[in-house]
């Protein structure tokens, strides 16, 4: 397939590299020509900064930009690409945002956290597709199956629930790691001592029902330990962390009292 990408950030970077192994990345379009040129050079594509420069013989255009920019981007590019299938990569954005401007529209959402510094295993990354037309849905299904063993045709509502769950499972849990590091840093304790605990917790959550795997003082209803921890946070001037600790402990108590 001849594929062009809109965007030159983390998602675009990973998609360009994995797709380039089996398909042709034709162009990288970005308002930042420098970023487009950097990514294009890595995959042998052409960098462009004007929508009028898009080639007409494309099979697919992937919009890989921030959620809030998708609506503006499709309005800018759909006239020059009115015959081409255009998809976005967002978990929380409905198909409608493209469909109201562009007939051949779809979604190609990888459920993964992307960083430029780390490679990901695409074969195990769930991919979620949706399209306005059945033939385009099949095209996206074929493309997704060339990358991953886990491909699903999900609606916009289903993807939104996954995206919300991902915020809890990924973004919030990572912030918990950040808070944990703040606590031990205050006492000059090595954060890496927590690595085995972090990994075992993740393993248990992926192999069992997380509710059944809950441990700790809140689950046990150990109010003496809960107070000791909150007092330590108060003494350490980590008042904001104390608020989070109290709120999360209360939710765990309620969840396990039932």
TrEMBL record:
Domain DUF2520: 126-252
SUPFAM superfamilies, sorted: 6-phosphogluconate dehydrogenase C-terminal domain-like, NAD(P)-binding Rossmann-fold domains
Pfam family, one: F420_oxidored
Family annotation (InterPro entries): 6-PGluconate_DH-like_C_sf (IPR008927), DUF2520 (IPR018931), NAD(P)-bd_dom_sf (IPR036291), P5C_Rdtase_cat_N (IPR028939), TM1727-like_C_sf (IPR037108)
Keywords of this entry: Oxidoreductase
Domain Pyrroline-5-carboxylate reductase catalytic N-terminal residues, every copy: 2-89
Name this protein carries in UniProt: DUF2520 domain-containing protein
């Amino acid at each position: 397939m001849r594929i062009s990408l809109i965007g030159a950030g983390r998602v675009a970077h990973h998609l360009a590299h994995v797709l380039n192994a089996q398909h042709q990345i034709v162009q990288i379009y970005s308002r930042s020509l420098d970023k487009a040129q950097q990514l294009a050079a890595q995959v042998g594509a052409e960098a462009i900064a004007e929508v009028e420069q898009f080639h007409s013989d494309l099979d697919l255009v992937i919009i890989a930009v921030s959620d809030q920019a998708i609506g503006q981007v499709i309005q800018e590019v759909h006239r020059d690409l009115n015959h081409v299938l255009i998809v976005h990569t967002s978990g929380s954005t409905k198909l409608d945002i493209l469909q109201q401007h562009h007939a051949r529209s779809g979604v190609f959402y990888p459920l993964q956290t992307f960083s430029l510094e780390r490679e990901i295993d695409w074969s195990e990354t769930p991919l979620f597709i949706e399209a306005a037309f059945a033939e385009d849905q099949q095209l996206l299904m074929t493309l997704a199956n060339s990358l991953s063993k886990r491909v699903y045709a999900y609606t916009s509502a289903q993807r939104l629930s996954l995206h919300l769950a991902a915020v809890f499972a990924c973004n919030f849990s990572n912030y918990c790691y950040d808070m944990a590091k703040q606590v031990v840093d205050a006492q000059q304790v090595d954060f890496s001592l927590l690595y085995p605990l972090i990994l075992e917790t993740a393993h248990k959550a992926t192999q069992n029902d997380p509710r059944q795997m809950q441990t700790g003082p809140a689950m046990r209803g150990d109010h003496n330990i809960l107070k000791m921890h909150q007092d330590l946070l108060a003494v350490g001037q980590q008042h904001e962390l104390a608020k989070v600790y109290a709120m999360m402990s209360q939710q765990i108590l309620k969840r396990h009292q039932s």
